[in-house]
Write a structure and sequence with these properties.
globular, alpha/beta, 8-stranded mixed sheet, 9-stranded mixed sheet, 13 helices, binds flavin-adenine dinucleotide
Length: 430
């Protein structure tokens, strides 16, 4: 059974209890030299390491905790295309040329995920059944129709579903207004996907170490020296893939995003007639409520739902109560059935809600700020970073590369989200 280090010892994650075996067991012990050192064992770091190793580049990856400890082992497992914001918004922010390249790279991102799963036969409950951005009210339909039109212009495989179809596809009368089905997307068991990426990277020759935190990174005459507890790695290039889980040793990256919590709940496997009535084709769904709620049903027939917020202290009671209330509203057929698992994870928000690829110093890249969407993006960014590190040419890299950007008022903004969502959890019941 996989050993997993939860953020809060009172939490139990469905994913760690049902994941495939973690293939990494070594800790760094001694001095190594490599072309590239990658810090962080989530999708971004592992995909970078895998794509480098596939091309015969020597690569060492250091993970402070267990691989998948960060967002990659905790998320909802919806392999979505693109980013939260619409393609037109991305172009507004980045300009026509850079925005179009960015959009295209990310709208193809489910292909990158499912291609790796096929190529390396990754056992991760992969289901390319599509995902649905579903309206919770008639007033959200216009926004979704516009978003769907923008996606179609990019060539995305999306179609707009009418209210009757969303009602039957979701198994919920609450969702009877419409939604966008992206049939190129799908779902995975997120931690098993991490384990599969790690196994593939090791098979190709990458050296992966866990419980081996980066303690310092210094420029030496002949490369970057990454020091850990019991060893060090000298490398020409560095990828700091620590994202929203950056710690004090990767503090610059930490300060480049605003940390926000998301919590998830999962039932025990549902009785067959109930499991068959909820999202019968097993798409992943997320809705347009101000307290956005996602739903999916896993391979064993467990309903998994998520929304914004942390579960620390008294907040756990409030959020658990709210989630029960919202579940009864959306899926009344589950009334009275208990939750079996509750867990949380952290995402990193950016000022303009668009991820950043930062260049901290020559040869030191730090992708961060995925704003809660990182399975496809992390995988694709790792692939493109590997290509750029090999070629030394950034012309083909589809994302703008910028200097470190430190978010302002991080703690205040984080508290605003935390307590704002808590207030809404309380108010929603009246
Ligand atoms: C609850 C939740 C639900 C989500 N749902 C979805 C979803 O359905 N679909 C989707 O696409 N995205 C989702 N996301 C977002 C997605 O999980 C993340 O964007 C993605 O996992 C980020 O991957 P990453 O590899 O960049 O970072 P991470 O997975 O966070 O990995 C960073 C790693 O760096 C390590 N680290 C930090 N400091 C050091 C150090 N000093 N030395 C060594 N290692 C270090 C950490 O331990 C961590 O393992 C969700 C996120 C959360 C939290």
């Amino acid at each position: 059974m996989t050993v997993y280090l939860p953020q809060n010892p009172n939490e139990a994650s469905l994913w760690c209890n049902t994941a495939t075996e973690n293939p990494v067991s070594d800790k760094l012990n001694g001095n190594l030299q490599a072309d590239v050192v990658v810090i962080g064992g989530g999708y971004t770091g592992l995909s970078t390491a895998l794509h480098l190793a596939e091309k015969g580049v020597s690569v060492v990856l250091l993970e402070a905790s267990r691989i998948g400890y960060g967002g990659s082992g905790r998320n909802a497992g919806l392999v979505n295309a693109g980013v939260w914001k619409t393609p037109d918004y991305v172009i507004e922010q980045l300009g026509e040329e850079a925005g179009s390249r960015f959009n295209q790279a990310l709208y193809d991102s489910p292909d990158a995920v499912f291609d790796l799963i096929d190529r390396y036969q990754i056992d991760c409950q992969a289901n390319r059944c599509g995902t649905i951005n579903i309206a919770h009210s008639a007033s959200a339909v216009g926004y979704l129709q516009d978003r769907c039109d923008q996606l179609r212009k990019l060539g995305a495989s999306v179609r707009f579903l009418d209210g009757d179809t969303t009602r039957s596809i979701s198994g919920s009368a609450f969702y009877s207004h419409g939604g966008i089905l992206d049939s190129n997307a799908g779902t995975v068991q997120p931690l098993s996907f991490v384990h599969g990426l790690a196994a593939a990277a090791m098979e190709k020759g990458a050296q992966l170490f866990q419980e081996s935190p980066l303690l310092s990174l210094e420029r030496e005459e002949n490369g970057w020296l990454a020091k850990s507890t019991k060893g060090q790695v000298l490398a020409d290039k560095v990828v700091l893939a620590t994202n929203a889980y950056s710690d004090r040793n990767s503090q610059d990256v930490q300060e480049s995003t605003v940390p926000v919590f998301i919590f998830q709940c999962a039932t025990a496997p549902l009785p067959n007639e109930i499991a068959d009535s909820i999202i019968p084709q097993r798409q992943g769904m997320w809705d347009t409520q101000i307290l956005m709620t996602s739903s999916r049903v896993d391979e064993a027939g467990r309903l998994v739902m998520s929304s914004a917020g942390n579960l620390a202290g008294f907040k756990k009671l409030v959020r658990q109560g709210w989630m029960k209330h919202i579940r009864n509203k959306i899926y009344p057929q589950t009334k009275g059935l208990p939750w079996q698992y509750f867990w949380t994870g952290q995402v990193g928000l950016t000022r303009n809600k668009i991820l950043r690829i930062q260049l901290l110093a020559p040869g030191v890249f730090a992708p961060a700020g995925y704003n809660g969407r990182g399975i496809g993006p992390g995988t694709v960014i790792g692939k493109h970073l590997a290509e750029t590190l090999i070629s030394g040419n950034r012309n083909e890299f589809p994302f703008p590369v910028e200097a470190l950007y430190k978010e302002r008022w991080r703690r205040t903004r984080s508290a605003y989200y935390e307590y704002g969502t808590l207030g809404l959890n309380l108010l929603d019941r009246f």
